[in-house]
Amino acid sequence: xxxxxxxxxxxxxxxxxxMDLSGINLFIGENGVGKSNLYRALxxxxxxxxxxxAHEIAAEGGMFxxxxxxxxxxxxxxxxxxxxxxxxxxxxxxTFRYRVExxxxxxxxxxxxxxxxxxxxxxxxxxxxxxxxxxMKRAGPAISVRGPNGRMQDYxxxxxxxxxxxxxxxxxxxYPEIGTFRRAVDGWRFFHxxxxxxxxxxxxxxxxxxxxxxxxDASNIAAVFATLAHTREDTVELDRxxxxxxxxxxxxxxxxxxxxxxxxxxxxxxxxxxxxxxxxDGQIRFLGLAAALMSYRLPPxxxxxxxxxxxxxxxxxxxxxMIAEAARSSQIWIVTHSExxxxxxxxxxxxxxxxxxxxxxxxxxxxxxxxxxIDDDE
Length: 378
Hints:
Layout: E1 2-11, E2 14-20, E3 24-28, H1 35-49, H2 53-59, H3 63-66, E4 81-89, E5 94-103, E6 118-127, E7 133-139, E8 142-146, E9 152-154, H4 165-172, H5 176-186, E10 189-191, E11 206-207, H6 221-232, H7 236-245, E12 250-252, E13 259-260, E14 263-266, E15 269-274, H8 281-293, E16 301-305, H9 316-326, E17 331-336, H10 339-349, E18 353-359, E19 362-365
Parallel strand pairs: 3-17, 3-18, 10-16, 16-17
Antiparallel strand pairs: 1-2, 1-4, 4-5, 5-6, 6-7, 7-8, 8-9, 11-13, 12-14, 14-15, 18-19
């Protein structure tokens, strides 16, 4: 299931931007141009499928903080955050298109949560080679959905203003197309850096439970390594990446008992295993990235926000190697400040960096047309 394009409007610095996407999507730019807003807009699409869009917007300061604050025209219609995603099931040749709009509570509305983000509209359609077919549509609290007879019908339950219809119907279990799209997007993973303080989950043992992929807070990193070492019994690529990035170090993963743990052994101290609490911020962060990119079962999309943070420049080529390997089975989204990382990724994967800029106060991609296509020459 490939994310083929996305659209965001009126979200922070994203005035109106549509992008075609590929297997590896690398965004680079200066501070303040809105790179992280692109990442966050994608994350909000996932939040909508989980029924947490209003919660996520509220957590980042509410609608007044999240809405575009630049000039706008009355002809633009209702002032809402609008997010869209186009996801393609390449095996079955099905295209899913999802749109969600969130806005402010009407001034004359009855008592409730006056500053809570309001879900105003949603739509999910599918296309199988002919014309798009609407599977679900929501306007205000009313939802219509395509039933088993192929006709649109009113859903018996109205949505609360803070919940999304895609989550409500997905939980119902009666609409396979809606469930398929929701599961695909729910599988995306976003890694917005890793904590490296002494209480970081990266530095602590975890429950000894098989972990096919890394949690977004990396709290199961030790179980991810143990799954590779003792379930798959293959850590060749992981060992190569760790040795290349960390001066020949070797990852040590004991057989889990009540908890799973790991450590590093360095060539200059062959008889000592250094525990995670003893490692530097850069070392432990690289191990977190290794667990995210080399786990037993990779998610369909891996998004990394500034993965170069705290890493020594010598660690960037091994990081690019891991990205290239992960891209064989996952779609990759990277936001970075680092020209060195962009160059390394291009050398390993052939992926060109997309330069993010501010244009008339709004986030934009150099060389991109209004349709979202980026010219090869650019």
